[in-house]
UniProtKB/TrEMBL annotation:
<dbReference type="InterPro" id="IPR034756">
    <property type="entry name" value="T2SSM_b"/>
</dbReference>
<protein>
    <submittedName>
        <fullName>General secretion pathway protein GspM</fullName>
    </submittedName>
</protein>
<dbReference type="Pfam" id="PF10741">
    <property type="entry name" value="T2SSM_b"/>
</dbReference>
Length: 200
């Protein structure tokens, strides 16, 4: 026969039942309906505050950025000077040939064996006209490195679109490295073409 619970045990049992009901109420009602949405709102508020701060910083930089854009719009030092692509290509060929000649006596030397301008007739929708040079060089490593650094760092801006380096056919079988056969495709850009007559 089961023993009857004492009043104290009934009180403890009642309190345990109340605690279990409160825990179930919190887990099943309060948390999904109140706590979780409030936490999501708090997370969204934190994200929005970070975004607002980032946009405020960007807005503070706006005057400096506008000044930089205005200064860059007036600076054509990165573009090739001139209006006729063929004349500019010829001038660019002479400049590159002079740079190669300047490196001729440097550690094994460098020679320009072939040069050819490539002027694209149809430039598509690009506002800038492209001028390209195809160059074949016979260079040692040091003069080639110096030449590439000069082409990269000088104004106007020139881009190496293609670079092929191979062992020269007349390189020595033993000893030093000799020279390398180099094919180089350079490109630069002219200022935008003036609008055609009759174009509004």
């Amino acid at each position: 026969m089961r023993r009857a619970l004492t009043p104290r045990e009934r009180r403890v049992g009642a309190w345990l039942l109340v605690a279990a009901l409160l825990a179930a109420f919190y887990a099943l009602v309060l948390e999904p309906l109140l706590i979780t949405p409030l936490q999501a709102i708090d997370s969204q508020m934190h994200t929005l505050a970070e975004q607002r701060l980032r946009y405020q910083r960007l807005l503070a930089q706006r005057p400096a950025l506008e000044q930089g854009v205005q200064a860059a719009q007036g600076d054509d030092s990165g573009l090739l000077p001139g209006g006729d692509p063929s004349a500019v290509a010829a001038d660019l060929m002479q400049q590159v040939a002079q740079r190669v000649k300047d490196n001729e006596a440097l550690n094994g030397g460098c020679q320009l064996t072939q040069r050819m301008p490539i002027v694209a007739q149809d430039q598509g929708a690009s506002p800038f006209r492209q001028v390209r040079l195809s160059l074949d060089l016979d260079c040692a490593i040091q003069p080639l490195t110096t030449l590439l650094q000069q082409l990269e760092s000088d104004q106007p801006l020139l881009f190496v679109d293609e670079l092929t380096v191979r062992r020269a056919t007349h390189a020595p079988a033993s000893g030093g490295a000799g020279r390398l056969g180099v094919h180089l495709l350079l490109s630069g850009y002219l200022s935008p073409a003036p609008p055609a007559q009759g174009t509004p």
